[in-house]
Design brief:
The chain has about 190 residues and is an alpha/beta fold. Helices cover about 35% and strands about 15% of the residues. The longest helix has 17 residues, at about 30-45. It starts with 17 loop residues before the first helix and ends in an 8-residue tail after the last helix.
């Protein structure tokens, strides 16, 4: 219980290592370059023991300008909603000063995620305003580690695509899957099994 007049607050920030991994000024041109950054963020999160083996990045679709990255921060910040995609959405929207990445005057944005989104993140992807989702590892790769990905079905992706969001899968899947396996080998915490 909080004393009268005091309420909890939430503060989300990147781990200290982010600027060592992320080049904020370079344009990321190809899908492989963009995905490589999402995977590098996931790998650094595992190596620095700051969270689970999932990373994400949001770019402007036309220029490849990096807007934000996200890494799984569930355990680090004691919040079950802080998956890599969710952190990326929050940081991108904060940076752009908009609750949607589809606001008038903004260019189209795309999400690159080191693993196919769970049910929460897939739903948030629709609401975030991104126009394209590009995934590395597959849902099956995460469930092999006993992560519970929730109710995501083929119809879930059809629903997203019917609303104008393009979905691309298996970009650098082996590299993304290797980060999941590294997390398993280190005995990383599976917090929602």
């Amino acid at each position: 219980m909080y004393p009268s007049g005091q309420h909890p607050s939430i503060h989300i920030e990147y781990p200290r290592w982010v600027d060592d991994v992320v080049d904020w000024n370079r344009p990321y041109r190809s899908d492989e370059d963009k995905m490589r950054l999402a995977i590098d963020v996931a790998r650094a999160n595992v190596e620095h023991e700051t969270g689970g083996p999932f990373g994400a990045a949001i770019y402007t679709q036309d220029t490849g300008r990096l807007v934000a990255v996200g890494m799984n921060s569930v355990v680090r910040l004691s919040n079950c909603t802080l998956h890599g995609e969710m952190v990326a959405f929050m940081m991108a929207q904060q940076r752009l000063g908009s609750f949607t990445l589809r606001a008038p005057g903004l260019p189209p944005h795309e999400l690159f995620t080191s693993c196919e989104p769970c049910a929460m993140c897939l739903g948030a992807t629709l609401w975030s305003g991104v126009r394209r989702i590009v995934c590395g590892a597959a849902r099956d790769d995460a469930t092999r580690l006993n992560f519970e990905e929730g109710p995501v079905f083929a119809q879930s992706y059809k629903y997203i695509e019917d609303r104008g969001v393009t979905v691309v899968r298996n970009v650098l899947r082996d590299d993304a899957r290797a980060v999941l396996e590294a997390y398993r080998a280190r005995g990383g915490k599976v917090y929602n099994a």
